[in-house]
Amino acid sequence: MHSLTYVAIVTGAFALAGFVKGVIGLGLPTVSIGLLSLVMAPVEAVALLFVPSLVTNIWQLAIGPNFRPLLARQRSMLISICVGIAIGSYLFGTVQYPGAKRWLGVSLLAYSALGVSPFQFHVRQRDEPFLSPVIGAVTGILASITGVFMIPNVPYLQALGLDRDDLIQALGLSFTVSTVTLGIGLAAGGSLPVATLGVSLLTLAPALAGMAIGQVVRGRISPPVFRACFFIGMALLGAELALEG
Q1: Do 169 and 60 form a contact (C-beta atoms < 8 A)?
Q2: How many CB atoms within 10 Å of residue 104?
């Protein structure tokens, strides 16, 4: 691929992914890895994502008001995510499973189907001690294969009944832990060399610019309309990756 074309694709993918994250509080890994996996292996896309994902997730985590209570509530799930990523990386290799692209496509389709579903899922707080470790472990294993930590983590957090600010901060917390753990797995497998970190650092600017614009737009756009467009786009992208993989 021509170098200028490569730069344009990577810059555009991260700017769009940052914009989506700025509007709805999530979507940076999903959008960027989904788009980049059309032109490169998922493991390369995940390596490029490391720095912007880590920085934007810490940003999202830091601006919330209830870090300590959320950390206490999510502790078992966060630990299980780390364990799941470790198990998945040992069994399949970190985002190097031969069917990673197909699994990524299936994950995007599942996430989109849940996103547009009219059903509202609710988790009772008394059920969290049992469900949280299970959700975390499944999320970690799937993340180790696809590089995306949305399923079933995001629908589960959305079902807890958190208010908007707490939900965004809870997502930032789980994504930060997932990103760091996945990065450790990539580094251990030799898929996160210093040179790749340098390129990943360069993707931070378009991601942050897109996120800043998205946060401004958040209050001026209809959330239901934007979410519908987002999930339709993710479904189409997931179908393409599932068929291509």
Answers
A1: yes
A2: 28
Cβ(37)–Cβ(45) below 8 Å: yes
Each residue's pLDDT expressed in tens, for the chain with a length of 245 residues: 557 788 888 999 999 998 988 887 777 888 888 889 888 888 888 888 899 888 888 887 887 778 899 999 999 999 999 999 999 999 888 788 888 888 889 988 998 898 888 877 899 889 999 999 999 999 999 999 988 888 899 999 989 988 878 888 898 899 999 999 999 988 888 878 777 788 888 899 999 899 889 888 877 877 778 878 888 888 988 898 888 76
What does each C-alpha distance from 137 to 38, 78, 145, 147, 154 come to in angstroms? 27, 9, 13, 14, 13
Overall domain count for the chain: 1
Chain-centre distance for alpha carbon 50: 11
- Cα separation, 104 vs 99, in Å, equals 9
Rounded to an integer, what distance in angstroms lies between the CA atom of residue 121 and that of residue 132? Answer: 15
d(CA 83, CA 138): 10
Domain range for 24 is 3-244
How far apart are alpha carbons 157 and 177 in whole angstroms?
A: 15
Exposure letters 183-204 (e unless 16+ CB within 10 A, then b) = bbbbbeeebbeeebeeebeebb
pTM of the model: 0.86
